[in-house]
């Protein structure tokens, strides 16, 4: 017997003496690829890593890291093999992008078309849509209703609709419910062109009879739908940016506060007790102040906090009138992932770049309040030309950034900036690919779930193309 064979046998003998519950606990710290590597070492680990519970835990961790809506996967009905494939999906899509020739389009596995039809109800044509992270569910704004769809079946199935009382109803924002099993949908509707109602609904797609259930509302707002930007990253707070003001609303406790936003504020975000307000050349970080009880009939400006200053300000390397901010879908992360990642794009003719930033809690400060810190990725990528809206999401251990140039959609996979002060990217870490060219119309809307390889594109109000780059689970 050789030394290497003897060592291998000794290792296997040692492993077989480890109790199954200890092995199961070890697996909770491993990525799917590491689990497969263990599987190849010996029969004992092959059997251990083939357990259903191992892949249920692995898929849950993938959903946590990539910010996916957990009910996108009906784990209780999935086989062990299906769980394994779903857990590997982010890495498979990353490998597909990495192996693709940049001059060629990424080849889809299948393409379907979603049409605006809902039983006997006339919902009208599509206007816009949002893809719930995970790619299974879709929220569409139609002419006469907001509709929640399940894309896991063929043809895609409408689960519930919210009829419109006017011609001006749309989805402003969405996020997960407290239990992580439902979707919060923030709907804004203009009434007779005089005022606006903002209503929070919840829908549980896995229930026997999914429906939109009203949670809270702000009525008779004297602000147009197109004058407001709405963001959420928790199951209790919605922030609004409008007319140089920033309003923070706890829609569960009906408490509210309004701040004066810095001049030129163009976007807003909220996370873990902090508020981010973006300007073309910088962003400001605020501690969310105590909120005040809102009474029926109070206007947004009834509780204005004067002379409230930011905790810190950070300037971008460059700024221009065409600079844009793109937020990753942070609202679907568990609360322990106290981070906000966003992209800054300078799109003037001199410097077309994307820079990624991370804002989160400082580690190693037990007993102290979370101290926000900033890290920017050392990577940036130049855009080939002035681009359309840029969509950000997570895929495996990378940030996926998708943008349009005319009828063409492209994707970049880059490093996730997580190390305060230094940036963890290295030169050449970005990999780009062309997702497709849509010549039969302009890109009215698109959304992507790279962790499951599903792209949704609307070039016409008559249909939404559902493009799968990976086989279904």
UniProtKB/TrEMBL annotation:
InterPro entries: F-box-like_dom_sf, F-box_dom. It holds the Pfam family F-box-like. SMART domains: FBOX (SM00256). Residues 12-58 form the F-box domain. Gene3D superfamilies: 1.20.1280.50. SUPFAM superfamilies: F-box domain. This is F-box domain-containing protein. It comes from Lyophyllum shimeji (Hon-shimeji).
């Amino acid at each position: 017997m050789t030394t290497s064979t003897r060592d291998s046998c000794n290792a296997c003998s040692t492993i077989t003496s480890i109790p199954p519950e200890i092995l199961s606990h070890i697996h909770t710290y491993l990525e799917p690829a590491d689990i497969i590597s263990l599987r190849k070492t010996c029969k004992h680990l092959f059997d251990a890593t083939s357990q259903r519970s191992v892949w249920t835990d692995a898929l849950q961790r993938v959903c946590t890291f990539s910010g996916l809506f957990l009910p996108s996967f009906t784990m209780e009905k999935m086989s062990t093999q299906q769980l394994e494939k779903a857990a590997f999906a982010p890495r498979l899509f990353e490998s597909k992008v990495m192996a693709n020739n940049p001059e060629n389009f990424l080849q889809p596995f299948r393409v379907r078309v979603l049409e605006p039809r809902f039983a006997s109800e006339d919902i009208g044509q599509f206007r816009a849509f949002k893809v719930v992270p995970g790619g299974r569910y879709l929220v569409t704004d139609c002419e006469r209703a907001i509709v929640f769809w399940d894309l896991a079946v063929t043809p895609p199935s409408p689960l519930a609709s919210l009829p419109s009382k006017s011609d001006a109803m749309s989805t402003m924002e969405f996020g997960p419910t407290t239990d992580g099993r439902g979707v919060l949908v923030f709907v804004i509707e203009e009434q007779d062109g005089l005022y606006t109602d903002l209503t929070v609904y919840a829908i549980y797609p896995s229930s026997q009879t999914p429906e939109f259930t009203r949670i809270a509302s702000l009525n008779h707002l004297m602000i147009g739908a197109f004058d407001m930007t709405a963001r959420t990253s928790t199951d209790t707070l919605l922030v609004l940016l409008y007319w140089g003001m920033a309003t923070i609303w706890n829609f569960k406790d009906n408490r509210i506060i309004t701040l004066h936003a810095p001049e030129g504020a163009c976007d807003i975000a909220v996370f873990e007790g902090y508020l981010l307000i973006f300007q073309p050349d910088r962003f400001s970080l605020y501690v969310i102040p105590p909120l005040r009880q809102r009474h029926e009939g109070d206007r947004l400006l009834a509780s204005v906090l004067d002379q409230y200053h930011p905790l810190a300000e950070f300037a971008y390397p460059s700024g221009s009138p065409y600079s844009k901010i793109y937020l990753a879908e942070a609202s679907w992360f568990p609360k322990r992932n106290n981070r906000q990642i966003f992209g800054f794009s300078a799109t003037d003719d001199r410097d077309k770049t994307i820079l990624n930033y991370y804002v989160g809690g400082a580690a190693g400060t037990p007993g102290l309040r979370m101290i926000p810190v900033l890290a920017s990725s050392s990577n940036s990528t130049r855009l080939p030309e002035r681009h359309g809206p840029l969509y950000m999401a997570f895929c495996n251990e990378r940030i996926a950034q998708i943008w349009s140039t005319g009828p063409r959609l492209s994707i970049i996979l880059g490093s996730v900036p997580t190390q305060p002060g230094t940036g963890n990217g290295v030169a050449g870490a970005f990999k780009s690919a062309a997702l497709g060219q849509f010549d039969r119309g302009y890109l009215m809307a698109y959304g992507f779930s790279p962790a499951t390889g599903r792209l949704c594109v609307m070039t016409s109000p008559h249909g939404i193309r559902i493009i799968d780059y990976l086989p279904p689970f």
